[in-house]
Write a structure and sequence with these properties.
four-stranded antiparallel sheet, Alpha-Beta Plaits, alpha+beta
Length: about 90
């Protein structure tokens, strides 16, 4: 069994309140879950209204599949939001 996890940190400079941030986070999480069938959640920076930290996990029996899914999910997140990706950290176990 191969498990991959990834944390994507984004900067949403146009967001002025936590309510606006929650709407953007919800959009990212739902679309990513539906597209890739991943476990996705906001994993940090909950009180910072301009920084979004999204984590997701993938399980497979092939390391190449996990790596590919993580890469495609990060690219998908980049394309569905106006927020700028400032950091991506992934691990495969």
């Amino acid at each position: 069994m191969v498990v991959g996890s990834c944390v994507v940190t984004l900067r949403a400079s146009w967001v002025n309140s936590l309510k606006e941030k929650r709407m953007e986070v919800k959009k990212i999480i739902e679309k990513t879950k539906n597209r890739f069938n991943l476990a996705v959640a906001e994993v940090g920076e909950n009180d910072s209204h301009r920084t979004i930290k999204i984590g997701f996990a993938c399980v497979s029996n092939d390391r190449a599949v996990v790596d590919s899914v993580i890469e495609r999910a990060v690219n998908f997140i980049e394309n569905i939001t106006d927020a700028e990706i400032i950091d991506v950290y992934s691990e495969i176990f």
